[in-house]
Amino acid sequence: MLRSARSSANASFVEHHEGPLAPWLAGARLVLAKSGTGSLEACLHGNPTIVVYQLRGMLSSLGYHNILSVPWIAAANLIAGRQVVPEFCFARERGWDRVQQAAIELWRDGPERTAASAGLAEVKQRLGAAGATARVAAIVKDFLCPEVRP
Fold it and tell me: How far apart are CA 46 and CA 117, in angstroms?
């Protein structure tokens, strides 16, 4: 889908990559991602990101829009407590026009891009410094195996 959209838009300057993200994110101006750790990694690199969920059909779309109990699914938005990256959820091919419009707005320098960058910086600050896994492991270890004190 992305390759054909790139071709039909005559956007040969747009790159599509799969695999380890860090090398590509270092120079990306805009990222289109599915939800998950990849979208959060893009956000932590400071890249304006658009999160897209293309559902299989109307039943899953109804579930998404009517049953979900959180206002967002993208981790960056949940961490910020507000929308800092646009997220789109739609069934079939409907909805890609809204994704395209958001991409155009975030690609250009302007208020949308500035707000996105500020929101992503807030998300990164809220998560804290690298090494969270080691810090949590130390907390759990101290809780489960407290040192014997004299």
Answer: 6
Q: Which phi and psi (to 5°) does residue 123 adopt?
A: -60, -45
State phi, psi for 35 to the nearest 5 degrees: -70, 155
Q: Which helix (DSSP H) or strand (DSSP E) does residue 87 occupy?
A: strand 87-91
Instruction: Look at the block and give the residue holding tokens 């690609």.
Output: 107
Of the candidates 89, 73, 82, the one whose C-alpha atom is nearest the C-alpha of residue 120 is 82
**CA distance linking residue 90 with residue 57, whole number of Å:** 9
How far apart (Å, rounded) are the C-alpha atoms in residues 80 and 103?
21
Summarize pLDDT for 38-91 with one digit per residue, the tens: 888 888 888 899 999 877 665 555 555 556 667 788 889 989 999 999 998 877
Integer angstrom CA distances of residue 137 from 22, 39, 131, 141, 142: 25, 24, 10, 6, 9
Sheet architecture: strand order including 49-55: 31-33, 49-55, 87-91
Distance CA 82, CA 140 (A): 30
Map residue 24 onto helix, strand or coil. Answer: helix
DSSP state of 12: T
**Contact at 8 Å (CB) between 55 and 90?**
yes
Write down the pTM of the prediction: 0.73
